């Protein structure tokens, strides 16, 4: 059975153009935004995917170049987390949760031999872990800083009772960690029931068995749970200590 999907060619081009055009028309008719939004996003995605496809085709052939690709992805993730957290220059500290999260999970996968030390395996697994950790870190920092701003009076009250500044802040920001971890937890709880995640589908499309697909997906999900939990815990601590703070 041919398991190939979305082969490059004229039918794919026509289908993508039709879907983008329909999205643009809906934007226009419903007045939910500028008509150019969907085509611009699609064009940007096409350019980025074309570029990364060419790079990966060469990079995945060697371990050192694969690690270099992962390092570049880490830099992009760190920049995105800093920008989304709205913490200004202090957001540079968010590199720490990201580094610890992926730096804990990927080596564990390699040392146990579950993930082979080949670029074709390291980059996809590392990329998924990094992407999920980036989202959790960004959301955690953003929610924690918003909580400090909205509940500043509670922090002042705790300080007046003799609590340290770190503990006073922690009482306010700790509950926000649950919000940051919720998407990852929901994904793990509903996998196979509500959605079939990308890693599972990817293995199936690559002619792997359903058992292989399930094994890869549970590896990714548990890796995400660990990386996100560590990253969010560290992010909350950094906010509580004032290392990460809102821009003036």
From TrEMBL:
Parts of the chain that traverse the membrane: 12-29, 41-60, 66-82, 94-115, 121-141, 191-212, 218-240
Entry keyword set: Membrane, Transmembrane, Transmembrane helix
InterPro entries according to UniProt: UPF0014_fam
Coiled coil (UniProt feature): none
rRNA-binding is among the record's keywords: no
Main location: membrane
Localisation: Membrane
Protein name in UniProt: ABC transporter permease
């Amino acid at each position: 059975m041919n398991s190939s999907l979305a082969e490059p060619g004229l039918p794919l081009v026509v289908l993508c153009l039709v879907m983008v055009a329909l999205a643009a028309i809906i934007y226009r008719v419903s007045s939910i935004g500028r008509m150019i939004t969907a085509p611009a996003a699609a064009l940007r995605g096409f350019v980025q995917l074309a570029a990364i496809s060419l790079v990966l085709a060469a990079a995945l052939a060697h371990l050192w170049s694969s690690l270099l690709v992962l390092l570049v992805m880490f830099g992009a993730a760190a920049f995105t987390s800093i920008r989304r957290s709205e913490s200004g220059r202090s957001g540079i500290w968010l590199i720490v949760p990201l580094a610890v999260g992926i730096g804990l999970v990927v080596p564990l996968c390699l040392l146990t031999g579950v993930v082979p030390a080949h670029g074709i395996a390291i980059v996809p697994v590392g990329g998924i872990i990094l992407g999920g950790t980036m989202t959790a870190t960004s959301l955690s920092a953003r929610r924690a800083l918003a909580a400090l701003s909205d509940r500043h009076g509670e922090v002042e009250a705790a300080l007046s009772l003799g609590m340290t500044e770190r503990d006073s802040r922690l009482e306010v920001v700790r509950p926000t960690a649950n919000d940051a971890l919720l998407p990852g937890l929901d994904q793990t709880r509903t996998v196979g029931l509500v959605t079939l995640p990308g890693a599972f589908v990817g293995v199936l499309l690559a002619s792997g068995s359903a058992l292989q697909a399930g094994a890869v997906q549970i590896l990714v999900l548990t890796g995400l749970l660990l990386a996100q939990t560590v990253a969010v815990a560290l992010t909350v601590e950094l906010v509580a200590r004032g290392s990460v703070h809102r821009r003036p």
